[in-house]
Amino acid sequence: MNNVTERESNYKDIEKMSVLEVLQAINAEDRTVAFAVAEAMPQIEKLASAVAKKMKKGGRLFYIGAGTSGRLGVVDASECPPTFGVPFDAVVGIIAGGDSAIRKAVEFAEDDKKQAWKDLQDFNVGEKDCLIGLAASGTTPYVIGGLQEANKHGLLTGCIVCNGGGPIAAESDFPVEVIVGPEFITGSTRMKSGTAQKMVLNMLSTTVMVQLGRVVGNKMVDMQLSNNKLVDRGTQMVAKDLNIGYGEAAKLLSQYGSVRKAVEAGK
Fold first, then answer.
1. Which helix (H) or strand (E) element contains residue 95?
2. Is residue 21 annotated as a catalytic residue, yes or no?
3. Which of 23, 30, 36, 244 has minimal CB crowding within 10 Å?
4. Considering Cα of 90, then 95, then 98, then 102, what sign does the dihedral take?
5. Active-site annotation holder among 29, 110, 149, 177
6. How far apart are CA 256 and CA 248, in angstroms?
7. Helix 246-256 × helix 228-242 angle, to 10°
8. pLDDT (tens digit, 9 = 90+) per residue, 149-164?
9. Can 110 be counted among the known catalytic residues?
């Protein structure tokens, strides 16, 4: 295994840098992340295709991770229902240490190799489902244990890591390895590694939802109308698609509850 994420930073004496110098250096490092993600595109395509195939047959998508990686999984999962109108249990993010670890780190939670599978039992996971392990290092015991048990029980497994050749990738049917190089602050994987994982998660969940028919044209036709901004956006979408006035579109949207249903009814 090549443990790139623990390599020493390319920058020395950071504490002596000006505010602008720190910002410019971080920005310079961040600009390299998209290129690293592009290098992993073949792996990302395989994972997205496999997950979409499972979910078309009624399977669910689970993320497990610790620390920053776990939080990113929770964020991506929690954004799928309001964005794409899928059930809240279609995409689920689980973080080592439980939901309290989203806000406050739980010491040594990531070191428990058995806990991830215990956490997954609350959701009655089975062969239809997909499990993706998130860990910048590629070595987190919590994630390794979860993937090992998932493999034994026939789940589709994948991962998003930032080191190559690690044990998490080895336990994954569809590993994604995004090698971003040393962090600006040595070992601080919430930086480039976290950015890379967030980018891949955006790509993965969005692509899967497109494959599931949750996007029409370029619109979120099944989005939940959970605030005034989204109601306004939905109304404008209906008005444009049906070539009708805003007021009439608002009535249709209120009556049918979603952009998709309102447009179908209007046609």
1. strand 91-95
2. no
3. 23
4. negative
5. 110
6. 12
7. 110
8. 999 999 999 999 999 9
9. yes
